[in-house]
Automatic annotation (TrEMBL):
InterPro entries linked to this entry: NAD(P)-bd_dom_sf, ODC_Mu_crystall, ODC_N, SbnB
Gene Ontology CC annotations of this record: cytoplasm
Gene Ontology MF, one: oxidoreductase activity, acting on the CH-NH2 group of donors, NAD or NADP as acceptor
Gene that this polypeptide is encoded by: sbnB
NCBIfam families in UniProt: dehyd_SbnB_fam
GO terms of biological process kind: siderophore biosynthetic process
This protein's name: 2,3-diaminopropionate biosynthesis protein SbnB
Length: 355
């Protein structure tokens, strides 16, 4: 800890203590999170509730794009979360789809945590795992809340089976979900085969089927998880959803407006989700209204809305920075309590502002 005078008049000001600056590796993040799916889903639910009460600041994400690399982007998600977490911070996450062909993951990220009293950053965490974890925890949370007033799904279909689909499956399984049938569909047969292999190794019960067509997967599933990297809608036919499935539309741009218009729609945050040409944003552009939205997941959790069971139900989460802060703070506390913080001594230097 470094004690410094807190104001210009250093003679009279109370000294304040800066937390040391720590770097937390991906290996430490994984260790802090693995096997704690139920706890993390609770944390994410708490973060949604705190955000729902307004005790948070979650400005729009900032998209850095490159004229010569249209497929690539780096997104900044600044946020501040109150409640018991009480922290500010920034997730800085890249998506470079071409990485996959080179054998490295598409997404990479860091999360900075800032002390709410001084604004000083006190930790930098590897954050691709935190990001995938909070996304999957949010999906599992939504699956639980959104299936309360309808028959609990017994047939799940994974549409696009990369890293996020694997995390979502882990969180569904880790929070008590079992299925009679698990469907898999991916543009790339080798990815579908790899996901099938992962499912078999993870010891799931239930029949695993790889579906050649999108239509067959959707018609065969009561819970459909979209985790593709599609940039624009590629599923257009509302009749594929005639059996009223619950849809976790994590990749946000797969479904054509006519499908959302024939469904009940829940988002995580309305202002966030209706931008960047997500499917809900396309509906707003087409209809000029937001009437097609029933509400947010927090509205469901807090019983302000109840989705009907006799329509398809689609959850489209934009992904909120407050969730990264909730999970990142949990990781920080776990690593700190275990005595594993790797402190960078003298990271902040020359702190005596007035001599
Ligand atoms: N909403 C959120 O909070 C949130 C958070 C993190 C990631 N995501 C999104 O999740 C998605 C998946 O991320 P990932 O890291 O797993 O990506 P990934 O590249 O690891 O996997 C994507 C998979 O989808 C497949 N695919 C792509 N287009 C397809 C299509 N049209 N039909 C079928 N399969 C298709 C690919 O072959 C690949 O197997 C991305 O769109 C990402 O932006 C959303």
């Amino acid at each position: 800890m470094t004690a410094i005078p807190s104001a210009a008049n250093s003679a009279s000001a109370e000294p304040i203590t800066l937390p040391p600056f720590a770097v937390i590796s991906g290996a430490q993040v994984r260790q802090a999170l693995s096997g704690r799916e139920s706890r993390i889903v609770e944390l994410v639910e708490d973060a949604y509730r705190v955000h729902g009460t307004g005790d948070s600041v979650n400005p729009p994400s900032y998209f850095l794009r490159f004229p010569d690399r249209p497929a690539d982007r780096i997104i900044a998600l600044p946020a501040c979360l109150g409640g018991q977490t009480n922290v500010a911070g920034l997730k800085w996450i890249s998506s470079y789809p071409g990485n996959v062909a080179a054998g490295i993951p598409r997404a990479s990220a860091v999360l900075i945590l800032n002390d709410p009293e001084t604004g000083y950053p006190f930790a930098c965490l590897e954050s691709s795992i935190i990001s995938a974890t909070r996304t999957a925890a949010s999906a599992a949370l939504a699956a639980g809340w959104l299936s309360r007033d309808r028959q609990r799904p017994r047939r799940v279909g994974f549409f696009g089976v990369g890293l996020i689909a694997r995390y979502i499956h882990t969180f569904l399984a880790g929070t008590g979900w079992t299925f009679d049938e698990i469907g898999v569909h991916d543009l790339r047969p080798d990815n579908a085969a790899g996901f099938r292999g992962y499912l078999e190794q993870s010891g799931v019960t239930g029949r695993i089927s790889v579906h050649e067509t999108a239509e067959h997967l959707i018609r065969s599933s009561d819970l459909v998880v979209f985790a593709t990297i599609a940039g624009q809608p590629h599923v257009h036919d509302p009749s594929w959803f005639a059996h009223n499935p619950l849809v976790l539309h994590i990749s946000l741009r797969d479904l054509a407006p006519e499908i959302l218009l024939a469904s009940t729609n829940i988002v995580d945050d309305i202002d966030h989700c209706l931008k960047a040409d997500t499917s809900p944003h396309l509906v707003e552009q087409r209809t000029g209204t937001r009437d097609f939205l029933l509400g947010t997941l927090d509205d469901v959790i807090s019983a302000r809305v109840t989705p009907p069971a006799d329509r398809p139900l689609i959850f489209s989460p934009f992904g909120l920075g407050v969730l990264d802060l909730a999970v990142g703070t949990f990781v920080y506390d776990q690593v700190s309590n275990a005595g594993g913080l790797q402190i960078i001594e003298d990271f902040f230097h020359d702190l005596r502002r007035y001599g």
